[in-house]
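Duplicate of #3305? Posting structure anyway:
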């Protein structure tokens, strides 16, 4: 049997179709016609002597052979994309690109950014913020800072910086503050609690940790992002729940108070980077972050 590789163009067409689940989307990504992708796939199947896709309703489904080829081709193309991006960034003396959720960026990272730039001027940090799911494997980022739960994937280096601790917070401006500040945790069961759609289990998890029946929690105004949730709490609109790190500055300034403290969760605040990365700046950034986080432990 020949040991030659399949034609690169055909393999690119296959990898894009398998990843996107659509010949049309693959054609759009590759800037070719639908027919061109179909011909490449047909050629690949003819050379292999086996089908790579079968129709599944209006879409496509990978066969066993297709699944095996997708695993290999995805890994190869992702590696190529990553190395190419590294080479391009290196040629341009690119900064260190850090991906970070917008709430963590706004409420913890940016207030410390000036100090970071003074302490690590060689970092030349560039921030990439998002409120959606972050992909630490993105070829255009050097590292990702986020809360996550183990187990950790084998292809990533995950540096644990601090455990996540969550707790309810409210403003002294809140109309129920005088009543709640001395109340036990059960005093919150009658409150219309502020919450976020990005983390619906936060209140139930906290209630369970307090030995309370989460089924009797009363949820009030919801927010799409944690940043807006905490701004609402600071404005005196109600009681919110958040990681300790994200409200540390507000607690120190008296904008928010945490009468019931914080309890640990399974999550950790971590710095993620691909194992392939050899950039020593990631280690220096991790050490700096650990030092900064000590102040809120």
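Output from current build:
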């Amino acid at each position: 049997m020949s040991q030659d590789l399949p034609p690169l163009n055909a393999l690119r067409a296959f990898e894009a179709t398998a990843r996107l689940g659509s010949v049309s989307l693959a054609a759009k990504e590759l800037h070719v016609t639908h027919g061109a992708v179909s011909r490449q796939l047909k050629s690949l199947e003819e050379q292999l002597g086996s089908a790579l896709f079968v129709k599944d309703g209006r879409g496509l489904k990978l066969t066993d052979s297709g699944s095996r080829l997708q695993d290999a081709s995805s890994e190869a193309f992702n590696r190529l994309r990553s190395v190419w991006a590294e080479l391009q960034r290196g040629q341009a003396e690119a900064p260190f690109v850090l991906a970070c959720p917008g709430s963590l960026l706004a409420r913890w990272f940016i207030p410390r950014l000036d100090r970071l730039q003074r302490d690590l001027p060689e970092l030349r940090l560039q921030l990439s913020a998002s409120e959606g799911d972050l992909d630490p494997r993105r070829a255009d980022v050097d590292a990702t800072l986020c809360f996550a739960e183990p187990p950790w994937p084998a292809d990533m280096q995950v540096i644990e910086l601090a455990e996540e601790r969550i707790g309810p917070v409210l403003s002294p401006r809140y109309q129920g503050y005088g009543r709640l500040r001395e109340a036990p945790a059960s005093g919150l069961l009658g409150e219309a609690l502020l919450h976020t759609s990005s983390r619906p289990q936060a209140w139930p998890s906290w209630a369970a940790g307090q030995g309370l029946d989460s089924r009797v929690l009363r949820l009030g105004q919801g927010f799409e992002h944690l940043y807006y949730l905490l701004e609402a709490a600071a404005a005196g609109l109600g009681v919110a729940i958040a990681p300790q790190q994200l409200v540390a500055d507000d607690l120190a300034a008296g904008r928010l108070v945490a009468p019931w403290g914080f309890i640990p969760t399974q999550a950790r605040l971590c710095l993620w980077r691909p194992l392939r990365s050899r950039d020593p700046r990631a280690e220096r950034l991790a050490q700096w972050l650990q030092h900064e986080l000590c102040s809120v432990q």
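Confirmed duplicate; merging threads. The chain has a mean pLDDT of 89. The beta strands are 53-56, 59-62, 96-101, 125-130, 143-148, 156-169, 192-196, 218-223, 240-243, 263-274.
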